[in-house]
What does this fold into?
Amino acid sequence: MPNDIYVRGFTAGDYDTLRSWWRGHESAPPPLNLIPAGSSFLACRDGEPLAFSLVWQANADVSIIGLTICDPRLRATVRYSATMAVLRRVMEAAREHAGEFGCIWSCTDNPGLVKMYQRLGFVNAGDASTFHMALGRFDPEFLE
It folds into this structure.
């Protein structure tokens, strides 16, 4: 990851930027009220947002990563570095919530994100688009 990419928390003032990214990817943006305060992050360079992701923290030892997106104008190398940076931060927040024996889930059919999740240690949960990472000890049948 280039040293000039850093991750910061999302603010409501960033929402218009995210909306433009979703439109640039020909997708509908989620409503602002679906983006949780305190567990949503942006990877940035020189003050400019590059990639976004969040973690929904369930009322159990489970965290769900979602809505990962980047500026559609980015070169592939910058897109990869920025997305990996924001995913690492989101995973850190997920681990803080899920605890020692929790689980982190995510769903995507985006081939680039699938490769990133696998590189970060996620395991395919059986469905081609569902991934999980177990934290700590689980019954082996849970992971099958």
Summary: DSSP finds three helices and seven strands in the chain.
